[in-house]
Amino acid sequence: MAEKEPAVPQTAATDPGGEAARSVPTSVGIERPVDTPKKAKRRDSGSGWKGLLGFLSPVVVLILWEIAVPLGFVDGRFFPPPHAIAGTFWKMTLDGTLFADVRVSLVRIILGFLAGAIPGLIVGLSMGLFRPVRWILRPVISATYPIPKLALMPLIILMFGFGETQKVITIALGTFFMVLINTMAGVLNLDKIYLDVAKNYGASRRDFYTRIALPGAMPLIFTGLELGMGMALLLIVAAEMTGAVSGIGYRIWAAQAVFKTKEMFVAFIMISLLGYLFAEGLSSLQRRVIPWKQL
Amino acid sequence: MAEKIVIKGLTKEFVTRDRVVTAVKDVDLTINEGEFVCIVGPSGCGKTTLLRILADLETETRGDIRVVHSDPSKPLNSMVFQEQSIFPWMNVRKNIGFGLKCRRVNKRIIEETVERYIQMIGLQKFGEAYPHQLSGGMKQRVSVARAFANDPEILLMDEPFAALDEQNKIMLQEELLKIWETERKTVVFITHSIDEALTLADRVIIMTSHPGTFKMSVDVDLPRPRRIAELRSDPHFNRLFTELWGVLREEVYKAKANEGLTINDDEFHPDHSQTLADESRLVL
To answer: For residue B103, what are the contacts with CB-CB under 8 A and spacing of at least 6?
Structure first.
């Protein structure tokens, strides 16, 4: 009977990737690939009306916003009109602050992400593969996972001061758990038949890791990476709240102190853009790494 | 012919939470080198369990199994599973070459072998395709090719064509006959279809249900190479069919009467639904 896995919160209990590929109804007898490219469907940005509407809706929002401020429906001190934000955006681009902020934050995010994702992947695979490892580590993970990483920040600051290390570690912690839990779930969700096959065909321990567990868990590993990325963006803002002199998060807090909401919105835009680029990057990587998963 | 598999008094019991289920009981069976044996029985008779024990995926509770491993450079057995078992994350070529790769066979030899079997199953155009792009029949072909390519001394096949429609089933049976008639490996083939058993086997073994035990063995003295279309109209084939069905029918009725007690083959394996972790602990 399937072993219950109640202790660790199963953020990953969504679709265990491989499942989709396996349960595809196949038209037996017709000897041709059942697969047809479904790019248009998947990307949801098809041509025609759908694309046009998708483009128009934010534009309409911006226009309404622009009009609403002078009409007094929206408080321009908190929501500066889009053209003013655009002006500030341009100014910050020209004087280099925007680039500097993005670069600093990007380095922190990438370092923190890697420092969290790689151990998360390794520990997650081991916990998925080996029951004793799971027994030993699960209580620790279960106990530490629910603690908000923000709550740990004061401790991290005490330990590492206000340097880069503190920021990288804060982000790494958030990423670590996301990747770990999803990786473990990915391995545990593997259909046992594949292990029977591997065993029957003489797979070594290394084969089990590299040819079965890792590729098989890949869809959920990517879910973990995506969640970890979101976590990293969230934490960068918090981590740059204190002891930073640059960075996108720093910009937001600094702007607040002097009531420069326009700069704040520029920072929002950059975070949104970074999030979008990361998501795109991950999903293109995913398409390359998991060509076997029917999307 | 030399004895290849000798099974004596084989018993397998599964301990569930509140009782002990005997899946296979006191099975005696001898299979010769190069023999194609089909095991037929009502569902729930422990055929799959028997095969899994032979494949070393399950351990017997009692009894004695002797399998002659004559060529240590070859794997002893390779199994073709009933359910979809080719790896979704490997393309057709990688799937077929999986066993060879695990054995660290020379790359060039792997390529050649894979090429040969991909031709044999007619999937030349699908070498780079992934399983989700294949139909059920094609997937099962790959599964069969994977086992043959591994070049084992014994092939274990667990109702490999059960999930396929009639046309595909016949085509795959023909391909299997063709491949087997050139290679003459020892095959233990599980099926619930008398038709299939008579079409393929040198010998058909009937098992009783609940608990599964040896009932009778019938030699299928139909000439080879066999052609499925001709077999169907062969009076001897039909005589054998009638004879076997007479025996099997009894067992099926008995199984039906025991329905409440009978456990279907899948449920027979308590650890079948266990997680990877539990299994890999046994393996690693």
So the answer is: A202, B75, B150
User: Which of A217, A230, A147 is CA-nearest to residue A181?
Assistant: A217
Asked if the ipTM is above 0.90, the reply is no
Question: How many beta-carbon contacts under 8 Å exist across A and B?
Answer: 159
Are β-strands B20-32 and B3-15 bridged in parallel, bridged antiparallel, or unpaired?
A: antiparallel
Q: Judge whether B91 lies within some domain.
A: no
Cβ–Cβ gap B283/A216 under 8 Å: no
Find the range with the poorest average confidence among A46-55, B216-225, B256-265: B256-265
The residues spanned by each domain of chain A are 84-289
Pick the CATH number of A84-289 from 3.40.630.30, 2.60.40.1190, 1.10.3720.10, 3.40.50.2300: 1.10.3720.10
| pLDDT of residue A6 exceeding 70 | no
Q: Do B56 and A130 touch (CB under 8 A)?
A: no
* Domain range enclosing B213: 3-76+152-283
**A62: its two tokens:** 């911006």
Q: B135 and A128: CB-CB below 8 Å?
A: no
Name the strand (E) or helix (H) holding B188: strand B186-191
Is B201 among the domain residues? Answer: yes
Token representation of residue B217: 């063995």
What predicted TM-score, i.e. pTM, was given to this entire model?
0.75
